[in-house]
Known about the structure:
Blueprint: E1 6-7, E2 20-23, E3 26-33, H1 34-37, E4 48-50, E5 53-60, E6 62-67, E7 70-75, E8 79-82, E9 86-93, E10 98-104, E11 116-119, H2 124-139, H3 145-166, H4 172-186, H5 193-199, H6 204-215, H7 219-237, H8 242-248, H9 254-265, H10 269-274
Parallel strand pairs: 1-4
Antiparallel strand pairs: 2-3, 3-10, 4-9, 5-8, 5-10, 6-7, 6-9, 8-11
Helix pairs in contact: 2-3, 4-6, 5-6, 8-9
Amino acid sequence: MVQINKIEIDILAGFKDATLISHPDFAINRGVELATAIGRVMKMGEPYRFMENRIVRVLRGFISFSINLREYRITEGEALYIGQNSVAEIIDYDANSVVDLLGFALSVENENIKEEYLIGRDNESWMEEYFRLIYTISATQPFDRRSVEHLLLSLHYRIVDSIESSSHPVGRREERLRLFIEQLNSHHGKHDLAFYAERMNISPQYLSRLVFEASGTSASDWINRVVTTQAKLLLRSTQYTIEQIAEKLHFSTTPYFCRFFKREVGFTPTQYREK
Length: 275
């Protein structure tokens, strides 16, 4: 399996931060000034893969993410629940933003989510209670792991239940778009629209029309976005040569990959890696 730009909770253990509590299975950081945090683990405009679940709560200001090709702008009182193995990229943020951050892997492995949920400000009060309890218990010695595990599982179910109870039925086009994006995230590097159409049991022409009608963006642009993101991850986080990356991403030739990457990013693959 390709090892790419992973962010694991264990990486936080090396940070000396008075507000950060980190244990092997989770980490919580409260009242983080985003301007000082950017660059320590993530850099703006660069894709990263979260290996565990993440919750970002905005206490002041805003932060904009691209998560698995979908864009979210989280403002004061809102939160975003990001599933494990998600590809995340910071697009924009308010320099005065303050956030709470929580990362964890559920003890019940099959409960870990693979998508992402936006949590509205109408859920702010109970979210605050969970964060306060988890932080308080985590800071107490000796560390009560069982209590924290139960709180994390309870928080997970509370979020999922609140999202499901407030969700509205989606139309056929929107459902097809969701399935298309899921396929893109599962088979990143595949360029051929016919490949995705076949997996969805529809014609390429029909898929192309559905995607554009549902998103306002062409299917080829969606494919280019995920291929570009995967190329960035491989260039920044592996020792694969440019030729090997071109092959892994199913480009017929290395020059073709280099031209594609330069067109999408503004740098050649070599320039991007050195940057």
